[in-house]
Amino acid sequence: MNVSTLTNFAAETESGIGALGIDPIKIALQAGTFLILFFLIKKYALDNIVKNLDDRRYKIDEGLTNAEQAEKRLREVGVESEKVMAQARKDGDKVVEDANKESGAIVQSARDQAQVEHDQKLDEADNKIAQKQKEVSKGLKGEAASLVALATETIIGEKLDAKKDSALLDKALKQEIANG
Amino acid sequence: MAKLSRKQIANALADSWVSKGTNRKDLAAQTAALMIEEGRKNEVDLVVKDVKYILFSKYGIVVTEVFTKNPLTDTNKANITTLVKQKLSSAKKIVINENIDDSLLGGAFIATPEFSLDLTINSKLKKLRNV
């Protein structure tokens, strides 16, 4: 069959569907080509593409889930941090309050101690003064007694004769006898 | 011949001293001679002390040494006798030996085998000085 024959045949067939411009053979060939292409794509590429898409979707879903979880966690952490901060503020206030109380107690204790030491030193000073006075008084007494003794000795040496001595002895003896 | 102990000599002396007819001066001289001869001069004071003690404990005789500046009057002696008898109830006889001590200012120091009593002005002044 030559070209003219085919041209004629085509011209003749343009009477049915061909009149609409639709060539069934071409359509069949295109459909076959499409199917072959589809088959090839499905066999060699589609699975991988779908798999990649699935992976990507999975990753995206995972990322979104993670993001949601992270956001949720962030909110929780925020709440928790608020609680921690509140507790920390409370603890801090308590520490400050305790420190104030303790420092007050320490200051009071130091004052009391200082007062006690002050009183003790005053007492010691009073005692020392009293002791000193006593010593001075004793010294004066001793000195006075020595002077009196010396004066008495001198006077007795000069004035005490045998008669007076005898009378004094009698007096002393009688006193001893009276004392038993 | 063995030496007599101090106690034996004191006892013999005390017994002889109270015996009637004993010449006490001779007795004292003989005892002193014996002590010197035996080289026991240092014990004389102790023997005398022992004799006084024996005379008191055995015979109730209290030999009282009295040290004064001036001689004792009869009143002084009577008072001393009364005082010693009061302090030593077993005393039958009080013998007073007077000793004049010029270092004393006045008063008397009385010593018996059992007690001594310082009534001198010196001791009173000493007490005054120690106040």
Give the tags:
heterodimer; A: 180 residues; mainly alpha; 3 helices; 0% strand; rod-shaped; B: 131 residues; alpha+beta; four-stranded mixed beta sheet; globular
Furnish the topology, listing elements before pairings:
The complex is a heterodimer of chains A (180) and B (131).
Chain A: H1 3-13, H2 24-159, H3 162-179
Chain B: H1 6-18, H2 24-37, H3 44-59, E1 61-68, H4 74-87, E2 93-100, E3 108-111, E4 116-118, H5 121-129
Net shape of chain A: rod-shaped
- Overall structural class of chain B, as computed from helix and strand content, comes to alpha+beta
Element-by-element helix/strand order of chain A: HHH
Mean pLDDT of chain A: 85
SS-based class of chain A? mainly alpha
Total domain modules of chain A: 1
Largest interface: A-B, 24 and 25 residues
Q: Stretches of chain A where pLDDT falls below 50 for ≥5 residues?
A: none
How many H/I helical runs of chain A?
3
Helix amount of chain A, in percent?
over 70%
Mean pLDDT across every amino acid position of chain B: 90
- Which quaternary structure do these chains form? heterodimer
Q: End-to-end distance of chain A, in Å?
A: 190 Å
Helix content of chain B: 40-55%
**Overall geometric form of chain B:** globular
How large a portion of the residues of chain B is in β-strands, by DSSP E?
A: 15-25%
How many β-strands of chain A, per DSSP?
0
User: Could you give the count of β-strands of chain B?
Assistant: 4
